[in-house]
């Protein structure tokens, strides 16, 4: 049995990367020869260990994944999962003090600058963070690199989190609350950067695009 099969079977109770999504992500990674991978938003680390397992089965590669420091409070958290699975050599978690965008700034400023084959983007979904975050991701993707956007149809108005916390949207206009902000980035920012829309996965709420060049 592959490492991927072991991981997806053993940890199927942990959200949010279910077996169907993990299998599609494996296809995308394998078909595009991605070995250096960036992930924005890992929550408990389920998606991270799935990617780590994919790379382990391929025998090469590493994932750098970023989330807020508050992710340490989850039970289990990503560090627990990496210790249990032995995939720490494939996955490097980074805990941001405030925002993943500042962590990416550090990566952009590093010499040599990291360059990734693929980014799985499941960070904060509001316009400001997603729009600016994707621009920063573009600076870290190799020419021809792949961007996988999660929650294409997310909106504050439809979010269970925000519905349960009405005060969290108090500063937003009604049109911004109702906007599908990740899809807005897909429709406006990515074409501006020259990305090709490769495919949408409506059942997964994903969009996959390719950076020009390569």
TrEMBL record:
Keywords: Methyltransferase, Transferase. It comes from the Bacteria. It is an enzyme of class 2 (transferase). The keyword Methyltransferase applies. The keyword Methyltransferase applies. It comes from Lutimaribacter marinistellae. One of its GO terms (biological process) is methylation. The lineage of its organism: Bacteria, Pseudomonadati, Pseudomonadota, Alphaproteobacteria, Rhodobacterales. This is Class I SAM-dependent methyltransferase. Signal peptide: none annotated. Its EC number is 2.1.1.-. One of its GO terms (molecular function) is methyltransferase activity. Pfam families: Methyltransf_24. InterPro entries: SAM-dependent_MTases_sf.
